[in-house]
Protein backbone atom coordinates (compact mmCIF):
# COMPACT_ATOMS: atom_id res chain seq x y z
CA UNK A 1 0.00 0.00 0.00
CA UNK A 2 2.79 2.44 0.88
CA UNK A 3 4.49 1.62 -2.42
CA UNK A 4 1.33 2.60 -4.26
CA UNK A 5 1.08 5.81 -2.25
CA UNK A 6 4.72 6.68 -2.92
CA UNK A 7 4.23 5.96 -6.62
CA UNK A 8 1.18 8.21 -6.74
CA UNK A 9 3.02 11.00 -4.92
CA UNK A 10 5.94 10.72 -7.36
CA UNK A 11 3.54 10.82 -10.33
CA UNK A 12 1.81 13.90 -8.92
CA UNK A 13 5.20 15.58 -8.44
CA UNK A 14 6.14 14.77 -12.05
CA UNK A 15 2.81 16.14 -13.24
CA UNK A 16 3.34 19.36 -11.29
CA UNK A 17 6.74 19.78 -12.96
CA UNK A 18 5.18 19.16 -16.39
CA UNK A 19 2.46 21.73 -15.67
CA UNK A 20 5.11 24.31 -14.74
CA UNK A 21 7.10 23.52 -17.90
CA UNK A 22 3.91 23.85 -19.98
CA UNK A 23 3.16 27.24 -18.39
CA UNK A 24 6.65 28.42 -19.37
CA UNK A 25 6.21 27.10 -22.91
CA UNK A 26 2.87 28.90 -23.22
CA UNK A 27 4.79 32.17 -22.80
CA UNK A 28 6.24 31.46 -26.25
CA UNK A 29 2.94 30.53 -27.95
CA UNK A 30 1.63 33.64 -29.70
CA UNK A 31 -2.02 34.34 -30.46
CA UNK A 32 -2.79 36.91 -33.17
CA UNK A 33 -6.17 38.60 -33.41
CA UNK A 34 -7.34 41.31 -35.80
CA UNK A 35 -10.47 43.40 -36.00
CA UNK A 36 -12.82 42.38 -38.83
CA UNK A 37 -11.54 45.19 -41.05
CA UNK A 38 -7.92 44.63 -39.92
CA UNK A 39 -7.52 48.18 -38.61
CA UNK A 40 -6.40 46.81 -35.23
CA UNK A 41 -4.07 43.89 -34.64
CA UNK A 42 -3.17 42.38 -31.26
CA UNK A 43 -0.64 39.71 -30.35
CA UNK A 44 -0.54 38.05 -26.96
CA UNK A 45 0.88 34.89 -25.43
CA UNK A 46 -1.20 31.86 -24.50
CA UNK A 47 -0.60 33.02 -20.92
CA UNK A 48 -2.50 36.21 -21.83
CA UNK A 49 0.39 38.67 -21.82
CA UNK A 50 0.00 41.35 -24.48
CA UNK A 51 3.04 41.49 -26.77
CA UNK A 52 1.96 44.03 -29.37
CA UNK A 53 -0.87 46.26 -30.53
CA UNK A 54 -0.93 47.77 -34.01
CA UNK A 55 -3.44 50.53 -34.71
CA UNK A 56 -4.24 51.95 -38.14
CA UNK A 57 -3.87 55.74 -38.32
CA UNK A 58 -7.54 56.24 -39.17
CA UNK A 59 -8.56 54.74 -35.81
CA UNK A 60 -6.54 57.41 -34.00
CA UNK A 61 -8.98 60.06 -35.21
CA UNK A 62 -11.92 58.71 -33.19
CA UNK A 63 -11.27 57.92 -29.53
CA UNK A 64 -14.60 56.13 -28.94
CA UNK A 65 -14.19 53.98 -32.01
CA UNK A 66 -10.65 53.05 -30.99
CA UNK A 67 -11.83 52.11 -27.49
CA UNK A 68 -14.56 49.91 -28.98
CA UNK A 69 -12.06 48.21 -31.29
CA UNK A 70 -9.67 47.59 -28.41
CA UNK A 71 -12.36 46.08 -26.20
CA UNK A 72 -13.74 43.78 -28.90
CA UNK A 73 -10.40 42.65 -30.29
CA UNK A 74 -8.73 42.21 -26.90
CA UNK A 75 -11.65 40.14 -25.64
CA UNK A 76 -11.49 37.87 -28.71
CA UNK A 77 -7.72 37.48 -28.32
CA UNK A 78 -7.97 36.76 -24.59
CA UNK A 79 -10.69 34.16 -25.22
CA UNK A 80 -8.52 32.38 -27.80
CA UNK A 81 -5.48 32.49 -25.51
CA UNK A 82 -7.52 31.17 -22.58
CA UNK A 83 -8.80 28.27 -24.69
CA UNK A 84 -5.25 27.31 -25.74
CA UNK A 85 -3.97 27.71 -22.17
CA UNK A 86 -6.72 25.60 -20.62
CA UNK A 87 -6.50 22.87 -23.26
CA UNK A 88 -2.72 22.54 -22.87
CA UNK A 89 -2.80 22.49 -19.07
CA UNK A 90 -5.75 20.08 -18.98
CA UNK A 91 -3.93 17.68 -21.29
CA UNK A 92 -0.86 17.66 -19.04
CA UNK A 93 -2.95 17.29 -15.88
CA UNK A 94 -5.04 14.46 -17.35
CA UNK A 95 -1.93 12.61 -18.50
CA UNK A 96 -0.45 12.79 -15.02
CA UNK A 97 -3.47 11.81 -12.97
CA UNK A 98 -2.83 8.67 -10.95
CA UNK A 99 -5.32 5.82 -11.38
CA UNK A 100 -7.45 6.30 -8.26
CA UNK A 101 -10.62 4.19 -8.13
CA UNK A 102 -13.71 6.35 -8.37
CA UNK A 103 -11.77 9.32 -9.75
CA UNK A 104 -12.29 8.53 -13.42
CA UNK A 105 -14.22 11.75 -14.06
CA UNK A 106 -11.10 13.24 -15.70
CA UNK A 107 -10.90 10.55 -18.38
From TrEMBL:
It comes from the Bacteria. Keywords: Coiled coil, Cytoplasm, DNA-binding. SUPFAM superfamilies: YbaB-like (SSF82607). InterPro entries: YbaB-like_sf, YbaB/EbfC. Pfam families: YbaB_DNA_bd. Residues 5-32 form a coiled coil. It is found in: Cytoplasm, Nucleoid. Gene3D superfamilies: Nucleoid-associated protein YbaB-like domain. GO terms for molecular function: DNA binding. One of its GO terms (cellular component) is bacterial nucleoid. NCBIfam families: DNA_YbaB_EbfC. Binds to DNA and alters its conformation. May be involved in regulation of gene expression, nucleoid organization and DNA protection. Belongs to the YbaB/EbfC family. Homodimer. This is Nucleoid-associated protein L3X37_11955. It comes from Wocania arenilitoris. The lineage of its organism: Bacteria, Pseudomonadati, Bacteroidota, Flavobacteriia, Flavobacteriales.
